Amino acid sequence: LRSFRDENLLHSSFGKAFVRSYYKYSPPFASFLGRHDFFKNLVRYLFIEPLVFIVQFFNYTLDKKKEIKEE
């Protein structure tokens, strides 16, 4: 995810704003989730896992497009 942030998000004003918001709100949100297993699992299954799948899919797709261009 770090490379996605550096290579994609930080190149647009929306992405920069998203990253700033993430670093501002993530610590208290993580603290809350650490105390509430129900919400932690809810966030994991409804947000984190789908997001990781989407990022992996797009990284795979972009890698395949690069391979085709290089041929």
Describe the protein's architecture and organization.
The chain has 71 residues and is mostly helical. The chain has helices at residues 2-7, 13-35, 37-70. The chain contains 3 helices and no strands. Helix 2 (13-35) runs antiparallel to helix 3 (37-70). It is flat, with a radius of gyration of 16 Å. 0% of the residues are buried.
**Oligomer type:** single chain
Radius of gyration: 16 Å
The strand count comes to: 0
Helix content: over 70%
Number of helices: 3
Q: Could you spell the SSE succession in H and E letters?
A: HHH
Label the structural class. mainly alpha
Mean pLDDT: 89
Helix and strand arrangement:
Elements: H1 2-7, H2 13-35, H3 37-70
Quick structural summary:
Helix content is 89%, strand content 0%.
Question: Which descriptors apply to this entry?
Answer:
single chain; 71 residues; mainly alpha
